[in-house]
Amino acid sequence: MKKLIKIGLMGGTFNPIxxxxxxxxEEIRKGFGLDKVLFIPTGNPPHKLIEGQVSSEDRYIMTLxxxxxxxxxxxxxxxxxxxxxxxxxxxxKELKEIYPMAEFYFIxxxxxxxxxxxxxxxxxxxxxxxxxxxxxxxYNMNELKSGIQKLEKKYNRQISSLSIAPxxxxxxxxRKRLKVGKTVKYMIPDSVINYINKKNLYR
Length: 203
Ligand code: ATP
Ligand code: MG
Known about the structure:
By secondary structure, the chain is of the alpha/beta class. It has helices at residues 19-31, 56-67, 88-98, 110-114, 122-128, 141-155, 171-179, 190-199, and strands spanning 5-12, 36-41, 73-75, 102-109, 130-134, 160-162. It has a single domain (5-199), classed as Rossmann fold. The radius of gyration is 17 Å and the shape is globular. The site of adenosine-5'-triphosphate has 18 residues, from helix 1, strand 4, helix 4 and helix 7.
């Protein structure tokens, strides 16, 4: 029997992508022996630009630029090429058809796993693949563990967690810094900074 390839799925708005995302994806890839991590930027709501006047295409391109130097990172346009919001549960279904020989691990930060019950069809979603939650500054390990335990009990699923290097950054912080002209150097890759400057985003 052929071995399944292990693919991490890293969903996010990535508005813009920052080193918190990259560190988390790489630590989880290493820690769980994943073959690759597929970054999946979300689509934009219909007829609307998300905060910062940034299109789905811009977020997709910035994600490509940020991940280009890691041979284990890939970016999917499965959500950005669609008009409107897509739901993770549907995206995973589609990915299973595209990659029949893969085992999927959906990667989230602490904040995202703790609000997973607001996502479409939580039960079906948790049943559809493995989930790994990483620590994030502002959410302590006990808070995360007890939140995960509650979910595991309620949905009868195991959810893994990993304590990772704390990077206290968010895209919201980055957007605020760019708006007032503060530096974001070393917080996001230079290639992404160049793209933001060229397209005059987040001003
Ligand atoms: P925003 O401030 O716009 O919400 P964000 O920094 O939270 O941006 P998202 O695109 O919302 O980034 O997050 C995508 C995923 O990355 C989520 O699962 C989130 O929990 C995780 N994540 C983002 N930043 C960090 C970080 N610094 N440490 C750990 N996980 C993070
Ligand atoms: Mg967020």
